[in-house]
Design goal:
Structural class: mainly alpha
Largest sheet: 3 strands, antiparallel
Mean pLDDT: 74
CATH architecture of the domain at 7-78: Orthogonal Bundle
GO biological process, one term: regulation of DNA-templated transcription
Shape: elongated
GO molecular function, one term: DNA binding
Pfam family, one: MerR_1
Number of strands: 3
Oligomer: single chain
Distance between the termini: 54 Å
CATH topology of the domain at 7-78: Multidrug-efflux Transporter Regulator, Chain: A, Domain 2
Protein name: MerR-like DNA binding protein
Helix content: over 70%
Low-confidence stretches: 86-90, 196-201
CATH class of the domain at 7-78: Mainly Alpha
């Protein structure tokens, strides 16, 4: 395959205006239909034909009450996506049951991964907001220092000084809130990623311990 005409999942996501993780999830679910390739690093790459199939999948999923499972069933029924060869050796009911179990497992795994991914994204967003608050706090302090240096302390009105201190306290409060949010999200993400390894009783104790 000529890789010069291929695009990455990130490029496909930008053209589709969705998250790159969403594109990878679609490829994992409809791999037999999309027919992706891989680069030397093991990442998905897509031809223009594969991208057009992604566009079709996106359009189908935008139809009312359409899930990925239903779209997959539609593609199978339309003959656009073939059942794996091993299923042809089973009777019809056994093949349907095996496919259903596989889809349930795949759906469960993808949902779990997506939930963890969403929490990690939320963590990054909160860390960025925290950084913005810190810069704002430093700028307020520097601004107050410049004002105090520019004029004598006696000429600065008490209202101006009080206003500057109020602004700094406000930014400090915002900073504390973001720090608590970041800490909570970190602990929640860690607990969620380890849940599958813990017995039910330990999971409950670990979750309640977060509060």
């Amino acid at each position: 395959m000529n890789q010069a005409v291929c695009i990455s999942t990130r490029e496909a996501a930008e053209r589709l205006q969705v998250h790159a993780r969403t594109v990878r999830k679609w490829i994992d679910t409809f791999e037999e239909y999309i027919c992706p390739d891989w680069n030397e690093r093991g990442h998905y790459i897509l031809t223009e034909d594969s991208f057009e199939k992604l566009v079709e999948i996106k359009n189908r999923l935008q139809e009312p009450h359409k899930s990925m499972k239903q779209v997959r069933e539609d593609l199978l029924r339309e003959g656009k996506m073939a059942i794996e060869p091993s299923f042809h050796h089973m009777d019809e009911s056994a093949a349907a049951a095996a496919l259903s179990d596989t889809e349930k497992t795949l759906t469960h795994v993808m949902e779990a991964m997506e939930n963890v991914g969403d929490m990690i994204e939320e963590l990054f967003d909160r860390m960025e907001r925290l950084e913005d608050h810190m810069y704002g706090l430093f700028e307020s302090i520097e601004d107050m220092e410049h004002k105090l240096v520019a004029v004598s302390y006696e000429s600065v009105s008490s209202n101006d000084v009080q206003q500057m201190f109020d602004e700094i306290r406000k930014k400090q409060d915002q900073l504390r809130i973001e720090l608590r949010n970041v800490n909570f999200t970190q602990r929640l993400t860690s607990a969620t990623s380890e849940q599958g390894l813990l017995p039910r009783r330990q999971k409950k104790a670990r979750f309640l311990g977060m509060f």
